[in-house]
Amino acid sequence: MEVLKVPTMADFMAEGKQPEVLFWVGSAGSFDDRAKKITKAFVKILNKAKVDFAVLGTEESCTGDVAKRAGNEFLFQMQALMNIEVLNAYEVKKIVTCDPHSFNCLKNEYPDLGGNYEVIHHTQFIQELIKSGRLKIQGNLYKGKRITFHDPCYLGRANNEYDAPRDILKNTNASIVEMKLHKRTALCCGAGGAQMFKEPEKGDKDINVLRTEGALETSPNIIATACPYCNTMMTDGIKAKEKETEISVLDIAELIANSEEL
Amino acid sequence: MQYLPNILFAIALVLGIGYFTKNVKKLIRNIKLGQHVNVSNNKSQRFKNMMRIAFGQSKMVRRPIAGILHLIVYVGFIIINIEVLEIIIDGLIGTHRVFAVMGVFYDVLIGSFEILALLVIVSVVAFWIRRNVIKINRFWNKEMTSWPKNDANYILYFEVVLMCLFLIMNAADQTIQIMPGAPDSHYVKAGSYPVSQFLLPLFDNFNYGSAVILERTAWWLHILGILIFLNYLYFSKHLHILLAFPNTYYGSLKPKGQFNNLESVTKEVKLMMDPNADPFAVPEGANAEMPAKFGASDVQDLSWVQLLNAYTCTECGRCTSSCPANLTGKKLSPRKIMMDTRDRLEEVGKNIDANKGEFKNDGKQLLGDYITHEELWACTTCNACVEECPVSIDPLSIILEMRRYLVMEQSAAPAELNNMMTNIENNGAPWPYNQMDRLNWKDE
């Protein structure tokens, strides 16, 4: 297996250099077994496209996003101010992340607290790599497959990015099928607002199951996601519907990495 | 005695507008109970939003059937109200159809009012059927108890009656205009009547006297109805016809994902993190502004824009019908959050009225007595409700403020969330993993 090249900001600093972009891995991307695969797939893409990137590694800490949404503004601002101290010390200018929640938080909520960076989501970054010719998509692995894309709330509604993930998917030669509720009207996977970390309130159905039913209506081979939490929720939904042998749930980064046999 | 109608008209006008003004003042007073928030920036963008979303109805038509029906009623309402101006002038100085001097233009005007009036009646009937016969889900959620349901129907009946009176008034006028040998020239030959002409056969056997009585009755009931309608607004969900404009003007200009950062918290956190700060120091200017509390437990803790939101809500339920928690049977309904906020604000307002301008603790609050913890914790902060609202209401911001109160003032988060937050505090991740292991994935 090819070794992943994952330099840290400290490595760059030691050499007196600045990377092109900081890859913010996020807590899920660092610790969650399923999300780690997405992280690695994205690193493979970065390596393949020869992107000069770095991670914070052990100097990275939770953005505080989930604490903020749970109502703990204290904890959020503590995390934010600590992270901003680190990011500013490294003179970070540009950040990319696979997590729409980190993306939204770093992009929109850090500036007020003194953290001003250009923040982009990994789907936007990959779209850019393809457009600029740094990444060529040639694989035909998904030719003829039906892929439906589940919009993450914090990329879509929260930040109006609906096109980047779809643009990337078009490069895989798959046929893209839209759910009834997509883009602006996309249904949440059920994990946002700190729901990921608690049991849902009493109801008659789980949100991820409802969303999965919407996805199944499109008879997909693959459900594409662009958020580690959505990925977990949709994977669980597919299991609840006992469709895990027929349908896979993959992040856009994984789709591209697989397609290019990275 | 010949000025009696003019005097009666003036009295009706003064009473109608006077009572309305009184309630508008109360409305403004109640909204101002909210916390100050700076929304004076970016006026041109705000104006554009208002023109696009409220005046241009851009978000209404996202649901095409309801959107187009609403557009007809909205355009009809605005345009037909030009007629009200003529009615007021006529009523005050005793003229009849004073704008008739405009000639052909007047004919076009009256003709288009009539067509719009007919379209409004058709749309309102369609609305009534959607609500009461087809029973579209969002009109029948739990929070749609008897008053909200009746309120919606009353407005529909009102609009039908007003439009019918307008058409009957015109038909009676025509009857007089075309009556051979009508005694005086008070009823000028003016206007075109593409719709009400079909009502003429009904009044075939009317003589001059009874036609005048019919015309006057319809005219008076029409204007009195409008004045009553105006005064009904304050008590109804129908306030949106006025408040949609300021509400879209003051709506958020930021990306929907951006939640505000509490400045009061920033001060404390910075002090905490400053190694040179004296932990026992008296805060600069001890009586300097210290927030009464973090987050919101009652309406006075919310911002005035959030309170304006509550009065603007017309209970259409688009938010609730797109809420993932509500769609899966949870108690949360964003519309209920707005209705509760308004109900509580009204209660606080009445309390202030009853206690000579000062609020007396009534042992109640928005949190708990109106909105339960269960509702607040069911929210996924997905912004579907905010995206859906046709008049830029933000129920999510209220939910967040109340979560803030629960967590920061009462430590009343669900236990699992407390675990998650403890993990972040201890090891910088929502799970119990060591921060030193954060890069292990690359070698796994």
TrEMBL record, chain A:
<feature type="domain" description="Cysteine-rich">
    <location>
        <begin position="31"/>
        <end position="101"/>
    </location>
</feature>
<keyword id="KW-0004">4Fe-4S</keyword>
<dbReference type="GO" id="GO:0016491">
    <property type="term" value="F:oxidoreductase activity"/>
</dbReference>
<keyword id="KW-0560">Oxidoreductase</keyword>
<dbReference type="GO" id="GO:0051539">
    <property type="term" value="F:4 iron, 4 sulfur cluster binding"/>
</dbReference>
<dbReference type="GO" id="GO:0005886">
    <property type="term" value="C:plasma membrane"/>
</dbReference>
<keyword id="KW-0408">Iron</keyword>
<feature type="domain" description="Cysteine-rich">
    <location>
        <begin position="147"/>
        <end position="234"/>
    </location>
</feature>
<keyword id="KW-0411">Iron-sulfur</keyword>
<keyword id="KW-0479">Metal-binding</keyword>
<dbReference type="InterPro" id="IPR004017">
    <property type="entry name" value="Cys_rich_dom"/>
</dbReference>
<dbReference type="InterPro" id="IPR051460">
    <property type="entry name" value="HdrC_iron-sulfur_subunit"/>
</dbReference>
<dbReference type="GO" id="GO:0046872">
    <property type="term" value="F:metal ion binding"/>
</dbReference>
<dbReference type="Pfam" id="PF02754">
    <property type="entry name" value="CCG"/>
</dbReference>
<protein>
    <submittedName>
        <fullName>(Fe-S)-binding protein</fullName>
    </submittedName>
</protein>
From TrEMBL, chain B:
<protein>
    <submittedName>
        <fullName>(Fe-S)-binding protein</fullName>
    </submittedName>
</protein>
<feature type="transmembrane region" description="Helical">
    <location>
        <begin position="6"/>
        <end position="24"/>
    </location>
</feature>
<keyword id="KW-0411">Iron-sulfur</keyword>
<keyword id="KW-0408">Iron</keyword>
<dbReference type="InterPro" id="IPR017900">
    <property type="entry name" value="4Fe4S_Fe_S_CS"/>
</dbReference>
<keyword id="KW-0004">4Fe-4S</keyword>
<dbReference type="GO" id="GO:0051539">
    <property type="term" value="F:4 iron, 4 sulfur cluster binding"/>
</dbReference>
<feature type="transmembrane region" description="Helical">
    <location>
        <begin position="154"/>
        <end position="172"/>
    </location>
</feature>
<dbReference type="InterPro" id="IPR036197">
    <property type="entry name" value="NarG-like_sf"/>
</dbReference>
<dbReference type="InterPro" id="IPR017896">
    <property type="entry name" value="4Fe4S_Fe-S-bd"/>
</dbReference>
<dbReference type="InterPro" id="IPR009051">
    <property type="entry name" value="Helical_ferredxn"/>
</dbReference>
<feature type="domain" description="4Fe-4S ferredoxin-type">
    <location>
        <begin position="368"/>
        <end position="401"/>
    </location>
</feature>
<keyword id="KW-0479">Metal-binding</keyword>
<keyword id="KW-1133">Transmembrane helix</keyword>
<dbReference type="GO" id="GO:0046872">
    <property type="term" value="F:metal ion binding"/>
</dbReference>
<feature type="transmembrane region" description="Helical">
    <location>
        <begin position="217"/>
        <end position="235"/>
    </location>
</feature>
<dbReference type="GO" id="GO:0016491">
    <property type="term" value="F:oxidoreductase activity"/>
</dbReference>
<dbReference type="Pfam" id="PF13187">
    <property type="entry name" value="Fer4_9"/>
</dbReference>
<feature type="domain" description="4Fe-4S ferredoxin-type">
    <location>
        <begin position="304"/>
        <end position="335"/>
    </location>
</feature>
<keyword id="KW-0812">Transmembrane</keyword>
<keyword id="KW-0472">Membrane</keyword>
<dbReference type="GO" id="GO:0005886">
    <property type="term" value="C:plasma membrane"/>
</dbReference>
